[in-house]
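Quick one before lunch.
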Amino acid sequence: MNDPTLHAPEETWWKDAIFYQIYPRSFADSNGDGVGDLGGIREKLGYLELLGVDALWLSPVMRSPMADHGYDVSDPRDIDPLFGDLAVMDALIEEAHVRDIKVTMDLVPNHTSDQHPWFIAALESTPGSPERARYIFRDGKGDGSEPPNNWPSIFGGSAWTRVTDSDGRPEQWYLHIFAPEQPDLNWTNPEVAEDLAKTLRFWLDRGVDGFRIDVAHGMAKPAELHDMNLELNTLMKNDDDDPRFNNEGVHEIHRGIRKVMDEYPNRVTIGEIWVQDNERFGDYLRPDELHLGFNFRLAEADFDAATIRDAVTNSLAAVARVDGTPTWTLSNHDIEREVTRYGGGIRGTGRARAMLLLELALPGTVFVYNGSELGLPNAVLPEDVLQDPVWERSGHAERGRDGCRVPLPWESPAPPFGFSTSSDTWLPIPPDWAPLTVEEQLEDVDSMLNFYRTAFELRELRPEFSGSGVDWYGSPPGCLAFRRQGGLICALNATDAAIPLPPGELLMSSAPLVDGQLPADAAAWLV
Ligand code: NOJ
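Model of the 1-deoxynojirimycin complex:
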């Protein structure tokens, strides 16, 4: 029986939850258009319950022209017809709650779509108008034909696009840190915060349990918009000195969001925060700001014991000062899948299993990206199907993130693998994923899927998974081992040879022991 005293109380349920990130386009398609939708998620709630997750994070499902697959929102208080409607969303929330699964949504407050009524009105208005003041419009440099500063867009090209006046003459420029279809909002304008509060309450009133906040480190911009050192420009991971992100004003914005969240019990915010400095990371988690912040250090670490240990120590230190909850993630819709990152094939899969045990052994909140539980690798896609705006914006220099966004394979034997009734899925599913389908893996006791289920269950039920810190053991070079206060020991072997296990009773290992020893590229739990 599950002992409720083992787990965080209901008000802070998120402190030790397992979140499952659904990329809605790619999870399950219920209407046969080749794109996943909310109806598909509803149909798979039984699967999610069987898997044993505590909460869902849905990548954006709000109304959007889909220039960045939903991260360009044209109406934040409606569901995009591609995914369903408000009634389906309500049903999904209700049915998930019946199964004791929470539902959190992606929120995109840094920018809107260029099809948002506010931006359409801004384009139809003149410089200096209240309509323009909701975004970041500036005159160009020199005779106006040069962008206001040298900032690049994260997706490639300039972060500024020039607009024309009603007679078609070139006029001001607007800022878009991402694609031109994603104009940045002006967060110094109180209307912007008021509108976000309305959006928060709209979804919270419908029963949503919280929000993942997109670009949570990006909403505030420096007043002077000075030029930046272009060497600091990177895709996703942002340098701490990059003036486009982590400006001090962002904290006031988070305090405003938290005030609204606090009107509703038991809800959570999780910020997408790219910042290396621990003190600055911790600032976002002060008691009146975000509940949780994504820490990407583990997702960035190679399969190397010292690097992994550093990532863990660092992530724990980042939240310690503010008594925050650590978070762990190995992949998401923006980064290469872990099986591929760890070398691909049997080796990459073995290491991904080991890293799951490591991640689940740690104190805090875990985020699992859909398809990780199937051991999916990144897909190698032909160029003519690529859809990520990064591909076009980089002049075909960067392939972008489509390889980790391919639809999930549910049933064998061939694409579309039960994902859809249409064979024309929005990204093609590799035929060699046949052994990775949910159907195949449920039948196989040793599959990645059953490995995930067992590990989730043990983490849920065993009292040894408790305590807020970790004590490191001495371990051979290339290995690591730590102990939770509750008594769980986790050992990881990143060398090429088997090693003896620390003393204790074996609870689970990511690969069969060899003569009682932990093989290469494997991890074990002991009590
Ligand atoms: C971060 C999201 O995770 C990514 O997918 C998106 O492209 C950018 N923010 C812009 O919204």
